[in-house]
């Protein structure tokens, strides 16, 4: 079984990049760069602005940096934004349907001696019915080699080195990003002293016709904008028109205030740093999430129960003390009553004795 593996190396500014023809072979290194008729002229990319129906002639330089000859295939194909936000090209066995179809290459197969360079003319012809805006492609020098993988299976490896081509077709521009498929998840720690985290996943789509980059940020606010928190700004890589990118941003230490408002914002800007008219505007999406402070409520419940137990015990001790005081007062009253009765009995006996003595004295007289 034979498997085809594609290794594409396309940089903003092409430098010599290594590629191995087969396991154990000497390293083969080549590069592709924008060029003038005499050689590379320092441009980072092939960049053009053309009217529909117009064309331009340019050059690319293919350089063999190896100490052995190379035979390369030179072709153009459409570009796309990868799932990770990178710049990718369709595989060499796929026919172009976009800007790659507009590129004509003077030579499709090159044999370069060791440490040599070839300048190849190219043409870019814009169809008369081309849509306005940005179109992307690439010019690639490819080396196909057979080998084996780690499991011993035979594989065909397509090593590709190229340079980017950006073309803007004149006409009305629409620099626009949109936010879709927003999904919100919350993580509430059981430690009541720690606040929840809110993760916001969403899809960014370039719905306009201008390649854009920018930053994304998410914010969470409670009722009346209380407890507002925001995530750190996350870079949005260059998105070609029609490109889709999924990303996630997190907002930490969010006060759980029950009904929270979640806002996702994208701040776009032109990928090439040049102003466009009209200027790109902010894209946003607003959603609601419930963030219940369960750990804090549980802590409050425990505190309330402890307070209720303490109040109940305090009142019980108060009732016992009042009952003890009442009992002591009652015993005091009873003891006081008993002492008063004994004093009254003694006073009744003494006058009787006095009367007898008086009678005896009266008899003597």
Largest sheet, strands/sense/barrel? 7 strands, mixed
The radius of gyration over CA amounts to 46 Å
* Contiguous helical run count: 1
CATH class of the largest domain, named: Mainly Beta
Beta-strand percent range: over 45%
| Low-confidence residue ranges | 1-24, 353-365
- Look up the CATH topology of the largest domain: Immunoglobulin-like
Gap between N and C termini = 161 Å
Spell out the helices and strands N to C: EEEEEEEEEEEEEEEEEEEEEH
Q: Per CATH, which architecture of the largest domain?
A: Sandwich
User: What name goes with the CATH superfamily of the largest domain?
Assistant: Immunoglobulins
Question: Domains counted in the coordinates: how many?
Answer: 2
Describe the structure.
With about 375 residues, the protein is an alpha+beta fold. It folds into two domains: about 1-170, Immunoglobulins (Immunoglobulin-like, Sandwich); about 175-295, Immunoglobulins (Immunoglobulin-like), CATH 2.60.40. It is about 20% helix and about 50% strand. The chain contains one helix and 21 strands. The protein has one helix spanning about 295-365, and strands at about 1-10, 15-20, 25-35, 40, 45-50, 55-65, 70-80, 85-90, 105, 110, 115-125, 135-150, 155-170, 175-185, 195-205, 210-220, 230, 235-240, 245-250, 260-270, 285-290. The strands form four sheets. Strands 1, 5, 7, 8, 10, 12 and 13 form a seven-stranded mixed sheet that branches. Strands 2, 3, 4, 6, 9 and 11 form a six-stranded antiparallel sheet that branches. Strands 16, 17, 18, 20 and 21 form a five-stranded antiparallel sheet that branches. It comes from Actinoplanes italicus.
């Amino acid at each position: 079984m034979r498997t085809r593996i594609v290794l594409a190396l396309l940089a903003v500014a092409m430098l010599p990049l290594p590629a191995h023809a087969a396991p154990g072979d000497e390293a083969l290194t080549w590069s592709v760069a924008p060029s003038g008729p005499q050689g590379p002229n320092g441009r980072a990319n092939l960049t053009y602005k053309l009217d529909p129906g117009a064309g331009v002639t340019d050059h690319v330089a293919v350089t063999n940096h190896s100490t052995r000859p190379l035979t390369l295939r030179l072709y153009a194909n459409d570009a796309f934004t990868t799932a990770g936000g990178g710049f990718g090209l369709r595989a060499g066995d796929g026919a172009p349907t976009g800007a790659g179809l507009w590129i004509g290459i003077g030579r499709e197969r090159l044999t370069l001696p060791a440490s040599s360079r070839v300048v190849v003319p190219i043409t870019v012809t814009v169809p008369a019915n081309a849509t306005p805006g940005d179109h992307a492609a690439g010019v690639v020098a490819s080396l196909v080699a057979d080998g084996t993988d780690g499991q011993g299976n035979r594989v065909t490896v397509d090593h590709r080195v190229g340079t980017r081509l950006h073309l803007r077709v004149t006409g009305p521009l629409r620099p626009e990003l949109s936010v879709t498929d927003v999904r919100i998840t919350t993580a509430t720690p059981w430690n009541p002293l720690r606040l929840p985290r809110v993760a916001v996943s969403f899809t960014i789509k370039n719905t306009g016709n201008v390649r854009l980059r920018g930053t994304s940020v998410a914010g969470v606010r409670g009722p009346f904008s209380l407890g507002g928190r925001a995530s750190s700004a996350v870079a949005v890589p260059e998105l070609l028109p029609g490109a889709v990118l999924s990303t996630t941003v997190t907002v930490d230490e969010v006060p759980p205030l029950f009904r929270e408002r979640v806002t996702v914002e994208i701040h776009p800007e032109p990928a090439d740093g040049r102003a466009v008219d009209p200027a790109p505007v902010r894209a946003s999406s607003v959603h609601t999430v419930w963030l219940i402070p369960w750990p804090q409520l549980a802590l409050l419940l425990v505190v309330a129960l402890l307070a209720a137990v303490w109040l109940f015990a305090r009142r019980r001790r108060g009732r016992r003390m009042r009952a003890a005081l009442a009992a002591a007062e009652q015993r005091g009253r009873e003891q006081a009553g008993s002492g008063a009765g004994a004093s009254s009995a003694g006073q009744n006996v003494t006058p009787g004795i006095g009367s007898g003595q008086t009678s005896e004295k009266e008899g003597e007289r």
